[in-house]
Amino acid sequence: MLDEVAGLIREVAATIVLPRFRHLSGSEISQKAPGDVVTIADQEAERALTAGLTRLLPGSEVVGEEAVAADPGVLRKMTDPGSVWVVDPVDGTNNFAAGNTPFAVMVALLRDAEPAASWILDVVAGRMAIAEAGGGAYLEGVRVKTRADDPGTAAMVGTLARHYFPAELRRRVNRRVGEFGEVTNGHHCAGYEYPSVATDEQQFAMFWRILPWDHVPGALFLTEAGGVVRHLDGDPYRPADSTGGLLVAPNDDVWHTVRDTLLLRV
User: Fold this and answer.
1) Which numeric CATH code is attached to 153-264?
2) Which end of the chain has a smaller Cβ tally under 10 Å, C or N?
3) Within the chain, which residue ranges are assigned CATH 3.30.540.10?
């Protein structure tokens, strides 16, 4: 199943998504809401993935980003028993529509509302990240393990997706970001942020908006690599969660150092 889904994702990326990169017409880009862009590639890729995934696993259901945009009631399937696919046909659509990278195609499989497997394809790089619950995390077939130490704030690089932060949270973190080696506003693509924490390209990422198609695939990949994905108050992340923000890190020590520095210190 892991290889079959990976093959489907690569095929959809190669035949639907990549050919439209930097070749979209104005009529092929629209907004679902202010600042929330969708393209014809998102829509066609989700249809192809939905058809392919349900063929691979008859009787399964799909929660896709564009299906939820059309009918928010689809989101209730996140807690259904049985097999449910979570699909982000183009993660980083704003990048994609602007002709920028990174962007990804992401899929996760839930079994009885628990993450069972996930796939993240960095489309332009052609790099596939795959995780299976209890089976580890792999990047292009090579097992990934997160760092086990805490390098200290001055040595850390991190991402704060501050665009969606409430004003008070933004003020609090902005007072402390100077204690870290480097803090950016991120790559606007969760499918890039999670693997980059797992591979130690960066040591943390903080998000406020936590839509399932953005975070379920990466959260399983990072935790299977040894990392930590928790709400800002320390509660564990669940696939159906939609509030409370997320802080992700390679290990428990780094998670606490980042959270304490940004949110607890006066």
Assistant:
1) 3.40.190.80
2) C
3) 2-143
Query: CA 258, CA 243: separation in Å to the nearest integer?
Result: 20
The predicted-structure confidence for 169-213, as pLDDT tens digits, reads as follows 999 999 999 999 999 999 999 999 999 999 999 999 999 999 999
Residue ranges of the chain assigned to CATH 3.40.190.80: 153-264
Q: What CATH number belongs to 2-143? A: 3.30.540.10
User: What DSSP line would sit under 41-81, residue for residue?
Assistant: HHHHHHHHHHHHHHHHSTT-EEEEHHHHHH-GGGGGGGG-S
d(CA 26, CA 131): 36
Q: Which of 75, 86, 123, 84 is nearest to 102 (CA)?
A: 123
- Closest by CA to 215, choosing from 244, 189, 190, 198, is 190
**What pTM was computed for the model?**
0.97
Q: Note the pLDDT tens digit of each residue in 211-246.
A: 999 999 999 999 999 999 999 999 999 999 999 999
Closest CA relative to residue 194, chosen from 214, 212, 170? 214
Burial class of residue 106 in the structure, from the number of CB atoms within 10 Å of its CB (0-12 exposed, 13-18 middle, 19+ buried): buried
Q: Can you tell me the distance from the alpha carbon of 134 to that of 224, in angstroms, rounded to the nearest whole number?
A: 7
Instruction: Name the amino acid, one letter, at 78.
Output: M
